[in-house]
Write a structure and sequence with these properties.
The chain is built from four helices and no strands. By secondary structure, the chain is mostly helical.
Length: about 100
């Protein structure tokens, strides 16, 4: 059971990619909205034209940037106990993930 929806995850990752690529102006935001609406209209047909290597690279980029944002950026910015809580949550999620995906 998940507590968040796929849509929220996609919106957050799109925001990370958008801001990371320098899109922090109103014009860039409007262009992103138009492109997103175009993909909504075209539907999943366009997904078949995206190379697998590009999708894989984006997944790795997002994974590493979100891990950096969650684990490295708070270092020495938050209280040690709070940082220990974040690290222990990451560790326990990883252990639970490994246990649930054993064959």
């Amino acid at each position: 059971m998940t507590l968040t929806s796929l849509q929220n995850y996609l919106v957050y990752t799109n925001t990370v990619l958008f801001v990371g690529s320098g899109g922090n102006s109103r014009v860039a935001g409007v262009m992103l909205a138009v492109a997103t609406f175009g993909i909504l209209i075209v539907g999943p047909v366009i997904i078949g034209y995206i190379p697998i290597m590009v999708v894989s690279a984006l997944i790795f980029y997002l994974g590493f940037s979100l891990m950096k944002e969650g684990l490295l950026d708070p270092w020495r910015k938050v209280h040690r106990l709070e940082y220990l809580t974040v690290r222990s949550l990451c560790f326990s999620f990883r252990i639970l993930y490994l246990k649930s995906h054993r064959s």
